[in-house]
């Protein structure tokens, strides 16, 4: 039996937040029915984004709505609050949060009390003080950014096709991606593939007219798939006329000119930043212990070290890797660990409430798969190395098995099947980002300027 009315607060609706709450729903079904447990999930978005599908959503292979999972439908026994936690005072078991109604009400942030805390706010893009990055850079962590980037790329092709100015045309057809991890390589691979296909519908644009540049500060890309597969990926990308620059950094993108550390300068209207992530700023607004890198100090049981009734996993947590040969090694902040940690986290909270012993998180990394575009990929799984079509097929099978809910699995599979039977979708719906622009203009107002597409580079 659990204690009288245990209030569980889950901060974050990503992998860890959703899967932990989902597990708690299953494990504490009777307690929830009797009113002995209450689960509240506070999340900025009412959905969980399956990020491995963002590159395919950007390329048009998957509909954006099928990349996300509605939390209210999945977590039907939980209270889902769309809002943001601003700070946490765990000593007093209180969280300060704002919701969509906070500004309307004018009463300021509200306080929420809890008994058990699950802190899973995830991560944000790790940026550097590079001139012009805040004004012109494009991220790639959300479905909105993925679809915005897809629209942007197609619109740049429209600009290049219609302009008579060679400088504008060259800048429009130059695409710079910074970061050689999964997000950068997969986004570049999928979008280049899409743009290459789209070029056949433009009378004056050929695939070779476009410049695709990948900038990576280290000496290799995709370190998760191993050195050999990383080298193969570089070779494969260069074979597609993609300029891969290793040991190179972006030094500036001010005035829409990408300046690299090797001295190269590329006038461009597209700079995609995927150079790593860092823990959510929320962690600094708590009284919980953190590591030097800003992540929460955790135990192998996924409790926060030195804090009772506090739990964490995923990107925000530094979880010891008990399977590693070297002491002090932490699990990698990726989806493979996050999903597995979330399930154990839900189990351990249920164990704790019932006075049962906790389990230890132990999972040996099995490998990674990456897509490089349609029918192209690399994989290093259980020591086996695959490339080309087999790796691409494994990538799809693996992520189809991992995307939450049967509904989403069926819809994604149906879209893949249809895309194999019919031509690719290359429609740009950039007006979705400013749906009231036309009406505002008709009503005598001034439509908003989109800095991505402003020819003068306004921000």
From TrEMBL:
Span of domain FAD/NAD(P)-binding: 7-341
Record keywords, A-Z: FAD, Flavoprotein, NAD, Oxidoreductase
Gene Ontology MF annotations: NADH dehydrogenase activity
InterPro entries documented for this protein: FAD/NAD-bd_sf, FAD/NAD-binding_dom, NDH-2
One matching Pfam family: Pyr_redox_2
Signal peptide location: none
Keyword field contains Oxidoreductase: yes
Family named by the database record: Belongs to the NADH dehydrogenase family.
PANTHER family per record: NADH DEHYDROGENASE (PTHR43706), NADH DEHYDROGENASE-LIKE PROTEIN RV1812C (PTHR43706:SF45)
Name this polypeptide is given: NAD(P)/FAD-dependent oxidoreductase
């Amino acid at each position: 039996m659990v204690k009288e009315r245990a209030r569980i607060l889950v901060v974050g609706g990503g992998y860890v937040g959703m899967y932990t709450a989902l597990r708690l729903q299953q494990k504490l079904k009777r307690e929830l029915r009797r009113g002995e447990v209450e689960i509240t999930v506070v999340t900025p978005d009412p959905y969980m984004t399956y990020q491995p599908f963002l590159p395919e959503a950007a390329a048009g292979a998957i509909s954006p709505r099928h990349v996300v999972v509605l939390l209210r439908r999945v977590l039907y026994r939980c209270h889902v609050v769309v809002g943001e936690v601003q700070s946490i005072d765990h000593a007093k078991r209180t969280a300060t949060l704002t919701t969509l109604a906070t500004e309307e009400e004018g009463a300021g942030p509200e306080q929420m009390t809890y008994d058990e805390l699950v802190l899973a706010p995830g991560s944000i893009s790790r940026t550097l003080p590079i001139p012009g990055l805040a004004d012109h850079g494009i991220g790639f962590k959300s479905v909105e950014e993925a679809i915005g980037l897809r629209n942007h790329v197609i619109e740049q092709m429209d600009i290049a096709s219609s302009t008579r100015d060679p400088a504008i045309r060259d800048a429009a057809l130059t695409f710079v991606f910074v970061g050689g991890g999964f997000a950068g390589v997969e986004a570049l691979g999928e979008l280049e593939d899409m743009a290459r296909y789209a070029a056949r519908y433009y009378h004056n644009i050929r695939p070779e007219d476009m410049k695709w540049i990948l900038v990576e500060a280290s000496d290799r890309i995709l370190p998760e798939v191993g050195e050999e597969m990383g080298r193969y990926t570089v070779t494969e990308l260069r074979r597609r006329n993609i300029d891969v620059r290793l040991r190179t950094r972006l030094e500036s993108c001010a005035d829409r000119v990408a300046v690299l550390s090797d001295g190269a300068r590329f006038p461009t209207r597209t700079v995609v930043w995927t150079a790593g992530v860092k823990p959510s700023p929320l962690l600094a607004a708590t009284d919980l212990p953190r590591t030097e890198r800003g992540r929460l100090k955790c135990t192998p049981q996924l409790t926060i070290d030195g804090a009772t009734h506090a739990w964490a996993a995923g990107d925000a947590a530094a979880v010891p890797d008990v399977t590693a040969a070297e002491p002090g090694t932490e699990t990698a902040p990726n989806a493979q660990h996050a999903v597995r940690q979330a399930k154990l986290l839900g189990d351990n909270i249920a164990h704790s409430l019932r006075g049962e012993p906790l389990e230890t998180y132990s999972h040996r990394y099995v490998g990674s798969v990456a897509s490089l575009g349609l029918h192209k990929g690399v994989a290093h799984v259980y020591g086996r190395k695959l490339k080309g079509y087999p790796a691409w097929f494994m990538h799809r099978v693996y992520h189809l098995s991992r995307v939450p809910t049967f509904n989403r699995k069926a819809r994604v599979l149906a879209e893949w099947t249809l895309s194999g039977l019919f031509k690719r979708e290359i429609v740009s719906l950039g007006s979705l980002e400013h749906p009231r622009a036309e009406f505002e203009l008709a009503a005598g107002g001034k439509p908003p300027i989109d800095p991505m597409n402003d020819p003068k580079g306004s921000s």
